[in-house]
């Protein structure tokens, strides 16, 4: 089991640095998916060999299994079967890592803190890359920066996927009178980078409260800065909500001087919003601008999705088939989605799929809250809260950076829910 643990530690450190394999023309596969399959198969072979295969039970894993089975049902009514098959394969090839993670967390006492540390260290290093990339545009011409990222993107994302990303990229943000390149590091876009940091940043504080090592406070600060430089408005909402939730949950346990520091920090963040010509504040305030093209486009997408949901309210259009339903000439890689996770799920797999999907996270939040005396559980609660609020504005479920992270939190909840 130790070798499987070490492989898992590498997996969660390596997620933000993953690259793509191109085994054939027009066919990309993220290396992280191959690693997950190898780890999972290795665990099952080992567990069956020693006759000790642990299958987690409980509400969290139950909802996850039901959700996966429901996505399989859409194979029978989808208007474009190959697209649905690809989405289903993505989910069912990665999801079994939950069994491996839960087993490690239950049977190896040090596994929890080790896996969380590996995850945070990977997030901290990639945050430094993102911050460096953002600063570099003030040293090199912006065109040079863009050309450099156009050159390296196919390596990290794959030739086929990178073509779509580059054609529809959101790497630039217009702030005031200038265009800035957002922090994206090696991610396909700043929104996925922000989702990744939103899930991992609270864990740095969780490790600090467990170990009392100030290094993790430094990691937390670096990751917050990187998230701010993504200029993702959904990410900003996630950061603010995470601060408020953590503030409420931790208040009874915080010493008076630390309370004063937190209040000062929150007041400072609010003060930043009122600094004239502040790019971060300008970006956040644009969320409430009814003339902003991004805002009006989202409203239109939400309205169209709701209309489609009224046509197929129970089963949806089929997993991955919404873009084809709207535009039969669309390509699989065309990034057409609703920019709202709840609506995206409902429009493709119906109200039943929505209930099953959010059943996973509601039951997970309940379990994490019950075990909030464990700081890892408490800050995982904050991470999932940030994810759910941020997902009101984007859809990260089918990201090879985000889905394995969500499964880590699900496994953590399952480890609390299952006895030995």
Sketch the major β-sheet: 2 strands, antiparallel
The low-confidence runs, each spanning 5 or more residues with pLDDT under 50, are none
* Overall tally of domains: 1
Strand fraction: under 5%
Helix fraction bin:
55-70%
Class inferred from helices and paired strands: mainly alpha
| Gross morphology | globular
List SSEs in N-to-C order: HEEHHHHHHHEEHHHHHHHHHH
Strand order of the largest sheet: 1-2
Radius of gyration based on Cα positions? 21 Å
Report on the structure:
The chain is mainly α and 420 residues long. It has one domain. Helix content is 68%, strand content 4%. The protein has helices at residues 2-14, 31-50, 59-73, 81-94, 97-107, 111-136, 142-157, 159-167, 190-211, 215-228, 233-250, 256-272, 279-285, 293-311, 322-326, 341-370, 375-390, 403-417, and strands at residues 20-24, 27-30, 172-175, 178-181. The strands form 2 sheets. The chain has a two-stranded antiparallel ribbon with strand order 1-2. It has a two-stranded antiparallel sheet with strand order 3-4. Helix 14 (293-311) packs across helix 16 and helix 16 packs parallel to helix 18. The longest helix is centred in the C-terminal third of the chain and has 30 residues, at 341-370. The model has no long low-confidence stretch (mean pLDDT 88).
